[in-house]
Amino acid sequence: MRIDVLTLFPEAFTGPLDVSIVRRAREDGLLDLHVHDIREHATDRHRSVDDYPFGGGQGMVMRVDVLDRALGHVQSLGTEAGLVVLLTPAGERLTDALVRELATHGRLVLVCGRYEGVDERFAEHCVDREISIGDYVLTGGELPAMVLIDAVARHVPGVLGDEVSPEEESFVQGLLEHPQYTRPAEYRGWAVPEVLLSGHHANVSKWKQEQRLRRTRERRPDLLDAGGHLRKPDERETGELQSDGAP
Ligand code: 9WO
Questions:
Q1: Structure pTM?
Q2: 148 and 39 in a common domain
Q3: What distance in angstroms lies between residue 112's CA and the mean position of ligand 1's atoms?
Q4: How far is the CA of 103 from the centre of ligand 1 (A)?
Q5: How far is CA 247 from CA 89, 133, 221, 230, 238, in A?
Q6: Does the Cβ of 90 fall within 6 Å of ligand 1?
Q7: Taking Cα atoms as reference points, which of 85, 92, 86 lies closest to residue 135?
Q8: Over the stretch 208-219, which tens digit does the pLDDT of each residue have?
Q9: Which of 109, 126, 153 is the last residue of a domain?
Q10: What tens digit of pLDDT does each residue of 170-191 get?
Q11: Of the four listed, 94, 147, 210, 224, which is most buried by Cβ atoms within 10 Å?
Q12: How far apart are CA 107 and CA 84, in angstroms?
């Protein structure tokens, strides 16, 4: 998969994307990541990328012309236009299901806003999907873009290797994971649950399933229906606000 990022802070895209599994995916050519500086597409002598909002209001807005030129340039570098994603708190929530869908695309182009936001005409005419990682405001879309890249990379075939399958994980089956333990079997008087040391596989499986249900009831009751049964992913409360502001 190819991912292009448009940002005013390309230097932010180091660190998390240079370690561990994502680093390996890039080295193996499974993830082809390109980061581009939007400012290179400014044309005036001050190289401005933002301007005052029409109608007044605080702060500055990113210019549609600069963003459109930057996007056009980046799209011309690849063989397919790619799915254009804007990271914004006003977007649809990034869920496990959406991550999987994004991972089926051959190319993603992620646009990171700064200042008070981007000119709405860019969102309307140039962007395919607006995506939010949660209901909080940050200083820019860069960290959400990195979260999205990390989550999507794990679903690109070959990235996780043979031992781990993203199909077996927590949110796929809709329950949280059971607690895990490793040696030593006792530490400062803190013992590992006896059943895990028993070697009785049927009892171990039963215990794990009970723990998964109990944890989900206690920590994420929103994943269960009133009868305590699993809800389908699209029937779960996301916690996001309705368009009329009602919870
Ligand atoms: C901010 C905002 C606040 C309320 C409703 C809509 C909004 N859109 C934006 C916006 O596009 N902001 C730009 C990007 C400029 C300011 C910093 N930006 C940003 C993106 N802050 N937080 C995000 C973000 C993106 C995805 N998921 C969570 C937060």
A1: 0.93
A2: yes
A3: 9
A4: 23
A5: 16, 18, 17, 22, 10
A6: yes
A7: 92
A8: 999 999 999 999
A9: 153
A10: 777 789 999 999 999 999 999 9
A11: 94
A12: 9
* Number of structural domains the chain divides into: 2
Query: Which residue range is the domain that position 188 belongs to?
Result: 169-235
Domain membership of residue 18 (yes or no) is: yes
87 C-beta closer than 6 A to ligand 1: yes
- Which atom of ligand 1 sits closest to the CA of residue 94? 27
pLDDT in tens, 33-64: 999 999 999 999 999 999 999 999 999 999 99
Among the candidates 153, 177, 195, a domain finishes at 153
* 12, 90: one domain: yes
Q: Tell the residue nearest (CA) to atom 27 of ligand 1.
A: 132
Domain co-membership, 113 together with 70? yes
Q: How many CB atoms lie within 10 A of CB 212?
A: 18
Report the C-alpha gap between 111 and 70 in whole angstroms: 10
